[in-house]
Amino acid sequence: MMQHPLLKAALTGFSAVGYWYSLTPPSYPSSRDKLHVDGIFGFVAHGLSIASKTAVVASLLCQIAVIVALQYPGSVQSSQVLIRLCHSAEPLPIGFMSPLFVIGSSLVISMALVRAWCFHTLGNLFTFQITIRHDHRLIRTGPYAFVRHPAYTALILVIIGVNIMSLDRKGWIRQCDMMGTQVGWWVEAFLVLCVFSIVSMVRRGEIEDERLKKIFNEEWLAYSRDVPWKFIPGIL
Q1: What are the structural domains of the chain?
Q2: Which family does it belong to (predicted)?
Q3: 22-59 confidence digits (pLDDT tens)
Q4: Which of 18, 142, 159, 166 could share a disulfide with 121, CB 3.0–4.6 Å?
């Protein structure tokens, strides 16, 4: 286990940016587009994703603030940060980079980049609603040459990465005894939301396949033969 507090702060910051970016729509449907009504399940998942985005990023920013404050313990600002954000009176090894932190942050950052690749490849065809554009076309390049729903795979792994980071016993949540506060309630609620969101994404992948098959027919059938995997090459 390595103690590199500023590197840990930087990786936490990149993870926060990656998580926020991954859950931010790159484009929106227009009045000319056809939307699939996803029902109460999709509506709730969308609303909760907005809340979780804010909560997760706020938690990661708190970790950065505490790490930096511990590097300058004599300043008034650092004292105020620790009083407000840390309930532990013990010396904090929060600057240590545990294997869980390295694995989790690496997943979040790398999969956010894959998500960005998906956004770039689809362009304005990528929306968070199941949308058929008036000039829709079937994209078979970039990450879509390997699986049919790479953006969902990437987001699921981003979510898993954030959960792994939350298990880090050298992180802000554990070291500052935040599990007994409202933060702990958010962590538990987030775990439930993650299961809900993953089920939603798998379901949406199936719906998207059905819609695209109906619209593009033979072109989609050829694509599904060339790319038989929905989420993970060679597995699923």
Answers
A1: 2-226 (1.20.120)
A2: Belongs to the class VI-like SAM-binding methyltransferase superfamily. Isoprenylcysteine carboxyl methyltransferase family.
A3: 999 888 777 665 656 566 555 666 666 777 888 899 99
A4: 142
